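Input:
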Amino acid sequence: MLEALSVPAVILLIGAGLIAATGGLLRQLVVLLAPLLTLLAATQVPDGVTLTAPFLDYTVEVLEGSPVRRLFAAVFALMAFTGGLFALNQARGYELAAAYAYAAGAIGVCFAGDLITLFLYWELMALFSTVVVWCGGTPGAKAAGIRYAIMHLLGGVILKVGIEGVTIHTGSNDIVPLVVGNFDTWMILTGILLNAAAPPVSAWLADAYPQSSATGTVFLSAFTTKTAVLALWLLFPGEAVLIGVGLYMIIYGIVYALLENDARRILAYSIVNQVGFMVCAIGIGTELALNGAAAHAFAHILYKALLFMTAGVVLYRTGKSRCTELGGLFRTLPVTTACGIIGALAISGFPLTSGFVTKTMISQAAADSGLVWVYFTLAVASAGVFLHAGIKYPWFVFFQKDSGLRPREAPWNMMLAMLLLAGACIGLGVYPELLYRYLPFPVEYVPYKPGKVVYYLQLLLFSGLAFFVLLPLMRRTETITLDTDWLWRIGLTSLWSRSRSLLRGPATALATGYSVVVLTVRRRLEWLFLAKRADGTVTGEGMLARSWAIGTTALCIVILLVAYVVTYFL
Amino acid sequence: MSGIGPDNPQRLHWLVRPHTIRRLWWGGAAVLVVTLLLQALAPYKGVLAMEGWPAFAAVFGFAACVVLVLAAKVLGEILKRPEDYFGGDRDDA
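Output:
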């Protein structure tokens, strides 16, 4: 029992329970303390399996430590803390409780030593993240939450089928690198990629996340996709198919973000884009690439949360998130604007920000592996990220035209959370050793070489020039962009109604035929047992219901006996 | 009468006054030129030799953005729909 209290996920789950059960100052205390205690416990988890428990006929490994597991758990706990601080006075108790239970699921996945434990925490995440989506509190949030839940429960089923298969066919459910080659491993990979918002189902992310509340989206941006990245890191390092999947996600995220009008949906698409970098790095699979994937996940969680916080402040203060309705907010939201710019520079991988020291690590890994086309696609993507998230987001939200909106600056707790994350984005960029020392493999990579810095400055700044030159082509329109979710939101419904109308003819014929048969049989039975008039009134007994003379009965019996004997001898 | 009209530059936030914007354009252009010149002092050894060409990254970045924006524009013509396309269940739609 006491051992369970050392499990980081359990600590945060208890915190979530206390948040739901308490109120006022006590709740605020739990909101701030629970993630810090979780962080402390996460950093103390030693390497290897340290806690097992019986579950059905299995012994599950509840707690297994390794550097990469501790790194992800630490950033999840940090994220829960800053997210909790951001939402401290604004979110409702049940939203915070759900968000913390969701974070506990993510941290549970980090330390899961076997596939069964991983699956249980995976489903915990699916459950409570759906609640966080619903906390948007609008009909749109309710509908998006249902679609989100269906997608993730489907992903869970696919993952479970794979886990069952691997457990039965190999006799082990340990989390070890797998080779994709049979049905079981493909199912596990598919189930994980679904959570990573990989194609062809990337649409769930931009559909659901922006529907949550101003505070809920901050939590959603951090956990689901990054636990999927960790699961890929642990189970499929070096799996070549991930390179293609990752590159597709990178370009998809840029193009859809360029077309989007809603600020929070722009940021949602850029999650897919950034996770693409990590998936691609895991596919490359060298030590530098895997370090890059882990480091980029760490940095990304912080700057993406920062960006969603700035968008959250704008939504909280103005009730708006469409670029067409925003603009000129820098006048009254100077701190939020500055934090938005820092987050935007970090996501773009600008020198002296966290994104630079992690993203260039992945590019270097591609170059070192001789993957020239991957290297150049990543360079295109770096330019594209600066275009859609680095400039487009802050420009349309905080600058461009004067929307006339003059909201008050963020409340103190929101501002403090943003400043903490902005400090982390710059701190990790200026002093990358802070992060490098916790990476799973020894780091020899040097991010700041003069030639490289000038190269990336040219790449990014001229991308910025391209943005302003091409601004007329990027006029905001009050539209959405169709995605593969059309297939299940429109296609399936349309197919259902079409197939109903197509089957209407045969179904009617079948029903008519059935009625005719029933009616005929009924008439025959009535003829045998009842005597009826033409108007339907019963006048006597039918042929088989009447009393017959004994001689006639004996004759019938003789005929039946003869028939039986003849049949027997034949 | 100047000094009290709503279009008076003095009433605008300093960041959006015309002369500030002019200075920002000139400052931005100067920064771009400096990054090009710095390449002479800090050459880059990339994967391919052409990455060391003068202004390679600048041209590559600019061209990549042009291609991405045009590709998005074409795709947008095909895929963009009104916000209430899915029945208007977006809370802010």
